[in-house]
Amino acid sequence: MDIRSLRYFIAAYECGSISGASRRCHVAQPSVSTAIQQLEARLGVRLLERHRQGITATEAGHRLYPLAMRLSAELRAIDGLFRTSTPATPVRLGLMRSLGAHRMSRLLKEYVNRVEGLALTLVNPEEPCDARIVRAEERDAREHFQPIWHDDYVIALPAGHPLTLKARLALEDLDGLPFIWRHPCAAMDKLGKALDAAGLSCQVRARLRTIEYAQGLVAAGVGASLVPAWPQILGDRELGCRPLAEDAFHEVIGIAWSEQTPSSALAPLLALAKASWEAADQAGSGASISRPRATAASWERPSP
């Protein structure tokens, strides 16, 4: 069995599209498609269903994925066992809170796999570091910036809550509503200011830091909360997520760095960030929420 075909299959499975796998593997789309078709022919099963929005794994594809991942990891282990050790490449990366464990783990996994001998240290974004993953408005005027994700924010309600019958919510709908408040959170701070300006207030039932904890409390019926429209949140059947009519709660998150020319160790991370941004821009937000379009060029250069 061709390990290259398995690698392309893994990339397509995780990216959800042939084009995404093509960018990750740095090969043309026909090469990815051909390799996966050859793998399907060898196994005698359909692994991926193609459609207009991308691809969806079949039952056979879901069964193959963990086996392919295990084999890929074992091959890397064998390669590392006999390869002459290389000097470690230290990189300090600052991370803001509430980035989302799932997407950050995928990004960091790809980054580690692309840089041989990478010694990655994660720190708070305020500490000395080679680059920082922060909100666009938090970057220093002297820093360059490459966006990665665009986060729209929605009101998460317990499933079956009367407000889920509305397509969009107004600030007035939040007046007196039991609420899970998060801090620090720039979007939540903006919501608080908007409520104060309108003379409205929520009933704060809990104050906490993490999005995942807020998601769990909303599902338990403790109250509503303002959360990012991540796929794992929108797909939670115990929640009903609705956008606010004001449509002002969104933010761009990306990598900020100060050097004019990124180091060879940092460049692969910037390439991954750019690919993620371009893929999201092509696919849309994935939710029924409009968002402004932006190009990487509008963010890359530091302010004069």
From TrEMBL:
InterPro entries for this protein: LysR_HTH_N, LysR_subst-bd, WH-like_DNA-bd_sf, WH_DNA-bd_sf
Domain of life: Bacteria
Region (Disordered): 282-304
Record's keyword annotation contains Oxidoreductase: no
Sorted UniProt keywords: Activator, DNA-binding, Transcription, Transcription regulation
Gene3D superfamilies: Periplasmic binding protein-like II, Winged helix-like DNA-binding domain superfamily/Winged helix DNA-binding domain
CC annotations in GO: protein-DNA complex
Positions of the HTH lysR-type domain: 1-58
Entry keyword annotation includes Transcription: yes
GO MF, one example: DNA-binding transcription factor activity
Family assignment from sequence similarity: Belongs to the LysR transcriptional regulatory family.
Protein name as it appears in the record: LysR family transcriptional regulator
Native source organism of the sequence: Halomonas nitroreducens
